[in-house]
Amino acid sequence: MKSAFLSLLLCAAACAQTLPPGVLGDGDQRFIVDDEAYEKQSGEVAEQLAKEGKLVNYTEIAVKAPREHPAISIAPPNDKALPPTELAETLRKSTVAVGLRYLDPKKRGGKNAKGDPSKKWSYMIGATAFAVAPGVFSTSLHVMTLDPSFMKEAQAVAVTSDGKVFPITGVIAASDRADTCLISVPGLDLPPLPIRSGVRTGEPVWCMSHPDGFTYMFTGGQVARVSRDRWDQKHQPALHVEVTAEYCPGSSGGALADAAGNVVAQVSSINNYEGIDDPEGRSVNGIVSARTCTAAEEILALTHPGVNEPVPTPVPRATPKPRPRFPKAP
After folding, report:
1. Of the ranges 93-102, 162-171, 270-279, which one carries the lowest mean pLDDT score?
2. Pick from 237, 249, 246: nearest CA to 294
3. In this model, does residue 113 exceed pLDDT 90?
4. How far apart are CA 263 and CA 199, in angstroms?
5. What DSSP letter does each residue of 30-51 carry, written as one string?
6. Percent of the chain with pLDDT over 70
7. By the 8 A CB rule, do 294 and 230 touch?
8. How far is the C-alpha of 299 from the C-alpha of 294, rounded, in Å?
9. Angle at CA 151, nearest 5°, toward 150 and 152?
10. In 3-state terms, what secondary structure has residue 312?
11. Alpha carbon distance 241, 267 (integer Å)
12. Average of pLDDT values for 226-231?
């Protein structure tokens, strides 16, 4: 198992591609990102990596996910609080955008040079991940799972804040119950974020993520509660942390950190309550969002030797047989 794990991490650095200059502002000491250029140029690099055969399909990643995960050495927790601007820089340098190259079943390609139907692939900045160890990143498991509503197949790349693009080649450790996993990004060595257990209600937290393609958004809030619940009756309960820090789809997998830069939770889901009608039919307005995160304890469990939960794979729906347009002749 150890040798198999090492082989995932020893991929040649040539797998990485760098975006052309101009994504970041020139002559300004602040971090400035152009979302449109960031997504467009990383998509072009992902397409080139796909042509070179360096991207791995999600179905292959799910099938080849190991049954067990090894121990992974991680950074010790920090105890010194950082100024918010320094904390934002720390989180940014350890965070990547997950670029998704996916085959949309609703889109049809044209004809390629040989006259065969070509596949239509799309690309977007779709999620977030953060560094745990050299070549190892943490993200939500649903980020690495095909969504049959708009994906027939998918591949993923990690895009750094300075525009380098690396293929995501596999899942090292997985917990479907807690919606978290550790992924392999060979050749990418970013500063690992320490992970701290035991966060309490009321603690201030900060989130670094890419909500709806707004890359490297830094938001703050507090821990609203710590809960233990399950997604559905098929899963055992997992430890969760609800927070008031803002995020939305695209933030999945992002780190929730304390003032010292320790990861205390990971973005998982959001549920919006938009009001109801009272018994007399009058609308009772008010939007309340429950932002649910995977607790650090669940991520830490994946850094110790253990058994992986299977990476979910979508079950194809049965295609109904077409009915004859006219009744058969007797």
Report:
1. 270-279
2. 237
3. no
4. 10
5. S--B-HHHHHHHHHHHHHHHHH
6. 77
7. no
8. 8
9. 130
10. coil
11. 9
12. 84
- Look up residue 78 and give its DSSP letter: P
Q: Which domains can be identified in the chain, with CATH numbers?
A: 2-108+119-307 (2.40.10.120)
**Please, what is the average pLDDT of the chain?**
84
Cβ atoms of 135 and 186 closer than 8 Å: yes
Amino acid 294 reads T
With cut-offs at 50, 70 and 90, classify the pLDDT of residue 229. confident
Contact 101, 52 (CB under 8 A): no
Query: Which residues pair with residue 249 across a beta bridge?
Result: none
C-beta separation of 96 from 143 below 8 A? no
At 88, give phi and psi (nearest 5°). Answer: -60, -40
| Contact call for residues 94 and 130 (beta carbons, < 8 A) | yes
Contacts of 291 (CB under 8 A, 6+ apart): 224, 242, 243, 244, 245, 246, 247, 267, 269, 270
Is the pLDDT score of 277 beyond 90? no
Tell me the two tokens of residue 205: 């937290």
- What are the structure tokens assigned to 95, written together? 């965070």
Give, for 276, the enclosing helix (H) or strand (E): strand 276-277
- Its pTM stands at 0.83
Q: Return the sign of the alpha-carbon dihedral for residues 179, 290, 208, 25.
A: positive
315, with CB counted inside 10 A (0-12, 13-18, 19+), is exposed
113 phi/psi in degrees, rounded to 5: -60, -25
CB 8 within 8 A of CB 169: yes
